[in-house]
């Protein structure tokens, strides 16, 4: 891989190495230069930022907008979500971002998250009970996936019978099937129909759940022009984002963390002996193999420099969380899994005003899921050769397709 200064804007780098061996590829990129021109996740050129200090600063830089209206025409092709799913926090800057985040942040207070600890523990124990007699499992499908989807669906008040549908829609968005180009469009349409119907049902018969609370905020705000307001599209988009992000990031965090422990049996044994260290270990798992490899795409509202590289206004900027978290200038011996290292400073959950809203819930779910698993099955091991374990083929997220285990 070459430096941006050598390649220029008309010769974006091939991203195949980032799929095949991402951390080695990012190490080469960091050594070659701070910012590189690549082919982005949508097939369009983008600027990739790789070094920790630059990524951290850029995450909090108000000149880097999440609003696609600041993109140069023709520069970016995203999911093409309809407005009812697209008016979410991942596409907004202040003041809209501030207004909506203020309305939903109460759902993720430390007290409310702590109240979920016992239910999450019960869900984990039930899933492990169902697996125990078999002596083996596909951990993503049988445990890492069902746990967060059950938690977030219970939080939102989504019927259990619709959860399998959501898993299929989520996969279609994150890892599109090239042989089925219409699958993503179909998934988006099905999601929109689902959320619209669910909100209508909750509005008619509210329940004791977060979605009913958000509907009440929406409906009450319509009569209070002076207060914070939530449009119908913003309401639907919030439900979509909470469910989508609450599932995707957590299933990948649990799967990646378990694989890291299986790759480091001495760390697994130490954590089993000292379960009180689980919370600190989760921070290291987040740094070591973060579920979000890239931050949400940004667009400069003016020409600016990152790492001494000039980036024109409106062009796509990708901030590599995966690379920043393995920058040796910030983390000593970054390729070493070390749950005892100082846990602060990783960027796996973001930085600045867009810091992950559901971070406390993701941390708690991972801590419980991993602790329950390694306690229940002391002889946990991979059930396939290590080179048969496959990750999703995307540079956007870092997650496993499957993780066969036995005990």
From TrEMBL:
Transmembrane segments: none annotated. It holds the Pfam family p450. Belongs to the cytochrome P450 family. PANTHER family: CYTOCHROME P450 YJIB-RELATED, P450, PUTATIVE (EUROFUNG)-RELATED. This is Cytochrome P450. The lineage of its organism: Bacteria, Bacillati, Actinomycetota, Actinomycetes, Kitasatosporales.
């Amino acid at each position: 891989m070459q430096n941006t200064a050598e390649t220029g804007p008309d010769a974006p780098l091939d991203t195949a190495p980032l799929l095949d061996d991402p951390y080695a590829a990012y190490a080469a990129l960091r050594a070659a230069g701070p910012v590189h021109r690549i082919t982005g996740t949508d097939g369009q050129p983008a600027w990739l930022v790789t070094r920790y200090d630059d990524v951290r600063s850029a995450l909090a830089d108000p000149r880097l907008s999440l609003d696609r209206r600041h993109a140069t025409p023709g520069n970016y092709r995203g999911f093409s979500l309809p407005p009812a799913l697209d008016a979410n926090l991942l596409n907004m800057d202040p003041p809209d971002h501030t207004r909506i985040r203020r309305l939903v942040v109460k759902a993720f207070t430390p007290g409310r998250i702590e109240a979920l600890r016992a239910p999450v523990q019960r869900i984990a124990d039930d899933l492990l009970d169902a697996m125990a007699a078999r002596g083996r499992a596909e951990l993503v499908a049988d445990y890492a996936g069902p746990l967060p989807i059950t938690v977030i669906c219970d939080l939102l008040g989504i019927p259990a019978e619709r959860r399998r549908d959501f898993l299929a829609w989520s996969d279609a968005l994150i890892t599109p099937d090239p042989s089925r180009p219409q699958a993503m469009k179909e998934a988006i349409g099905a999601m929109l129909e689902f959320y619209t119907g669910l909100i209508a049902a909750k509005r008619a018969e509210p329940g004791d759940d977060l979605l009913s609370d958000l509907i009440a905020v929406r409906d009450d705000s319509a009569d209070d022009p002076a207060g914070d307001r939530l449009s119908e599209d913003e309401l639907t988009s919030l439900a979509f984002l909470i469910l989508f992000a609450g599932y995707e990031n957590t299933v990948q965090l649990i799967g990646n963390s378990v694989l890291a422990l299986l790759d480091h049996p001495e760390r697994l044994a130490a954590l089993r002996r000292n379960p009180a260290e689980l919370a600190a270990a989760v921070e290291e798992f987040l740094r070591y193999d973060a579920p979000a490899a890239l931050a949400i795409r940004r667009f400069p509202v003016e020409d600016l420099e990152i790492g001494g590289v000039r980036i024109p206004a409106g062009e796509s900027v990708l901030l590599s969380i995966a690379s920043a978290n393995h920058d040796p200038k910030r983390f000593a011996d970054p390729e070493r899994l070390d749950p005892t290292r100082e846990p602060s400073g990783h960027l796996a959950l973001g930085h600045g005003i867009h810091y992950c809203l559901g971070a406390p819930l993701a941390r708690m779910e991972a801590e419980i899921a991993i602790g329950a698993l390694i306690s229940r099955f002391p002889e946990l091991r991979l059930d396939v050769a290590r080179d048969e374990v496959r990750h999703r083929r995307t540079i956007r997220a870092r997650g496993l397709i499957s993780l066969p285990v036995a005990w």
